[in-house]
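Students often ask why we bother encoding 3D structure as a string. The short answer is that it lets us treat folding as translation between two languages. Here is a chain of 534 residues written in the first language.
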Amino acid sequence: MTKYVVGVDYGTLSGRAVVVRVDDGTEVGTAVHEYRHGAVERTLPATGEALPPHWALQMTTDWVDVLRHAVPKALEGIDPTQVVGIATDFTACTFLPVLADGTPLGDVLPDRPHAYPKLWKHHAAQRQADRINRLAGERGEGWLSRYGGKLSSEWQLAKALQVLEEDPDVFARAERFIEAADWIVWQLTGVETRNACTAGYKGAYQDGGYPSREFFEALHPGFGTFVDKVDGPLSPLGGLAGRLTAEAAAWTGLPEGIAVAVGNVDAHVTAPAAQAVEAGQLVAIMGTSTCHVMSGATLADVPGMCGVVADGIIPGLYGYEAGQSGVGDIFGWFVDSLESSLTHDELTARAAAQRPGQHGLVALDWHNGNRSVLVDHHLSGVIVGQTLATKPEDQYRALIEATAYGTRTIVETLETAGVPVTEFIAAGGLLKNTFLMQLYSDVLRRPISVIDSEQGPALGSAIHAAVAAGEYPDVRAAAAAMGKVKRAVYTPDEAAADVYDRLYAEYQQLHEYFGKGGNDVLHRLRDLREEVAQ
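And here it is in the second language, the structure alphabet:
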């Protein structure tokens, strides 16, 4: 009997399900369900209350609706009795307070913004992150170096500390805090599990434990109880979290009792889908943001990493994660800001007609802050070199180039720290823009392989589902059979690369000047904007 598995990928604005054949990874069914509430950034749906700047929430009902709608639609034409497992992945850190039975606190306190899940791009906890980093540095906390010397405002500790300081009642009533990646598995199985990936990368779990209770108490009295609200056994990636409950079977149309895999992060689970299971193979998942994940054979301290976690991506290797918190979102913002009929396709065509350096611009890709390697979400975008002759396509190309320079910065930081990048593999929605992909190859001066699937995270989840169901002995074996990749699809044009070396040198100078204290104007402007807005 042909066997199938289901992978469900939870993104920023929608969730998608894919049905995959176990023996060769063929995708036989797929469906997307848009979240009714999307990313909640302006007003709280329950009350209409305006949210402060830099907030981003989500609604748990939207996540369950993906199981109710996308999974059954993807299964159309497939005998569900042939499905042996399901796995899910999530944007991270998307983090929520719940009761002991998993009930979201937003269901209990619908008028309290802090009771809802904070989406990965919730950046309102930067000041908490700054204090965490400062205190950890002063105390010489050993785990800090695993995160490049700084924890992000996007991660668990800063978000939870913000809840405690701004709504202590919500913090007190939260019996557990949990990643969305684990909460959705809880809904599928009826059992709380916690995956090693999000605990390590988003929760500062290192060498068998979280930061000490004493450290948390030094940050804020009462914050020591946070350890109790997140602690528990961690489950390995590809492991069996439990079995599908009758309720979840009714939602999805899948057989009760099939295997449910341990949760995972959307970026990290994409690595096996791209057959990137060996040291040195970097996968860049390029979409609204870009996440760079790779495994290394050795442990190294790399500045600005989102985390270095043993077994964090592939068992037996150290998993490295970096990222850019705005890529496709930057391009989308630019097109929207024009308020014209110009589209992405038209701007891309005009930009592609230019030669490298022709527009005379250099930009910094910090419109949504900087995740790596500066780890500062109070930074903002910069474009230099504009004149009265500057056109929209000039700016558009400069913004694309800036994101490529940001990626090159991450690659060079890894290699300078002794973590070689042997292959660059691209995945995500931006693969559709062939001009952008060639430009990245030119800027990076290296070939770019591409995942041979439009549903990389969902395919990666399906691979983990096959392992959890016992169809393969481990993730490596499943990836070899089910993963999809095309090698060296893009190769650098040497003449273009020569020009980009010169432009990248200018980017580096601006990166240091505006990002490392040479001129703190971006922070001052942000502070002034928030002061005036109050």
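Translate back mentally: The mean pLDDT is 97. Keep this in mind for the problem set.
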